[in-house]
Amino acid sequence: MNPVLRTDHLKVHHDTARGTLKAVDGIDLSIAEGETLGLVGESGCGKSTLARCIVGISRPTDGSIAIQGVSGGRGRAARLDRAQTVQMIFQDPSGALNPRLRVDRIIREPLDVNNVGDRSERRDKALKIAREVGLSDYHLDRMPHELSGGQRQRVSIARALALNPKLLVCDEAVSALDVSVQAQVLNLLVDLQKDLGLSYLFISHDLAVVRYVSHRIAVMYMGRIVEIGPAEDVWRGRLHPYTRALTASIPDEAARRDTGELLEGDVPSPVSPPSGCAFRTRCRFARQQCAAERPELRRVGTHEVACHFAETISD
Ligand code: SF4
C-alpha cells in the first residue's frame, strides 16, 4: 500500500545576497496510514518550510512529494485533491481563524469554497465535525474572540477536518496553549486518529510533546534529518549528539541523565554551514573526520542516524 505521504530528496533552497540558503536540504520521509511522525528540532531548522511544501503553500526547488502515491499537479482540481488529502493546523489559532466569521461559518468555509454538497448538508457536516472535536452548538454561534485558546484550536482542527483529509500537518499546534490545555488537545488528536484513521506529521520544538503523540520521531538540524526511528527508541536510546542534547535540556530528563550535553551555542548560518557535519561546531564529540566528511543517514539498530561515531558515543 502507498504511504499517505512520501517525500524524495526534497529541497527548498533560496538564493540570497549572501549565498544559497538551504532551508530544506534533501529530505526523504514517509508516513503510513494511521501513523504519527513527530518532527522535532530548534526554531529555524527548516521544519515549517518542509510543512508548507507538503501542504502546497510553498514549492520545493528539487525532489518530489507524493500524497497517497500521487505527485502534485497544478490547477483547481489538483488543489482540491491536495486539500482533500492534506490539511495544516497552525500554532496560533487566533491568526488562522477569520475574526469576522462565526464559528459555524469558519468550519463550513472549506465546504462552501469547494461546493461540497448543498447548503443544509454543509451545515449538518459542520455540526457533526464540531461535536467530534468537543465543541457544542453554543460554540458554533460564537465569534472566535469569544472562545478560549483551546476552543479556538478545536475550531482550527474542525475546519481542517471538513474535507475528510488523510493527513494533518500540525505545526507547533499546541505550543501556544497552557500545559493543561495542551494535554486536552493532544488527547483529542490521538482520539481523532483512532476514530478517523488519520495520519499526522506532528511538528514541534518540544521533544517531550512529540514523544507523547508519535509512533516515530525524526530529528531535524539545519535542513536535514539527523536521526529517525521508533519514538521510544529515539527517546530512550537516542544516538545522535543533537538528539542527546535535546533530551538533556528537558527538565525531568536532565535530572535523570546529567550527561553534560546541554545544547550550547547558536545554530550556524544556513547560508554558510560548517563543512562536513553541520552540528560539529556544537558537538562535544567532534573529531577531525567530522569537518572533512558529511555523515549520511545510515541504519544503526532500529534507528537511522547521521553521525560518524553513533556506535561509540554512549552515556
Ligand atoms: S559526525 Fe561528528 S560532529 Fe557530527 S554529530 Fe557525529 S560526532 Fe558530532
Automatic annotation (TrEMBL):
Oxidoreductase keyword on record: no
SUPFAM superfamilies: P-loop containing nucleoside triphosphate hydrolases
Gene Ontology MF annotations: ATP binding; ATP hydrolysis activity
Lipid bilayer topology: Peripheral membrane protein
Record localization: Cell inner membrane
Domain of life: Bacteria
Protein family membership: Belongs to the ABC transporter superfamily.
Species of the source: Tropicimonas isoalkanivorans
A Gene Ontology biological process term: peptide transport
GO cellular component: plasma membrane
Main location, first listed in the record: membrane
Domain ABC transporter stretches: 5-247
Coiled coil ranges: none
Record keywords: ATP-binding, Nucleotide-binding, Transport
UniProt-recorded name of the protein: Peptide/nickel transport system ATP-binding protein
